Amino acid sequence: TGGIRCEKASAYCVANLPKDLPVYHLEGGILGYLNQVPKEESRWNGECYVFDQRIAVGHELKPSKQFTTSCYACRHPLSQQDLKSSDYVKGSSCSYCRNDPEKEQKRYRYEHRQKLVELSNEKGRLHIHDPKELDFQGEKRLTTER
After folding, report:
1. Averaged pLDDT score across all residues of the chain
2. CB-CB contact of 90 with 113 (8 Å)
3. Which of 17, 57, 90, 97 has a beta carbon 3.0–4.6 Å from 74's, enabling a disulfide?
4. Across residues 57-86, what is the average pLDDT?
5. 92 with 111: CB under 8 angstroms?
């Protein structure tokens, strides 16, 4: 994505891989690549996870149609099929974290928070304690899926 993890990873590779093995670094990161290189010419396959309300993006930075939300507990991107799983509990768990002992300890807190979000939505108010309720342009919005 062009973020700090990419910078650290490329520096690590340069320092630790054999010197005759080239290390490439995309100027502008993968998001710059997806935004600039036409899909027909691209070597990228799939979507790129992003840390905002878009969840994942593809070419031209178009929001994903496959992944429309993420699990509140583990932040894993979720597809429509994931949302239909019996392991999915809105605001609490999904099939990726349902049996995770660490998440189990926090499950009550997630369930309670979800009730508060739903009460806020019923009253037409924002749930004020969640910065993820800002859309990717920084505007406040009502929580609909979480």
Report:
1. 84
2. no
3. 97
4. 92
5. yes
Question: CA-to-CA distance for 93 and 74, rounded, in angstroms?
Answer: 8
Residues contacting 116, CB < 8 A, separation 6+: 127
* Burial track 70-84 (b if 16+ CB lie within 10 A, e otherwise): bbbbeeebbbeebee
**Each residue's pLDDT tens digit, 38-48:** 999 999 999 99
- What number is the average pLDDT over the span 127-134? 60
Q: How far apart are the first and last CA of the chain?
A: 25
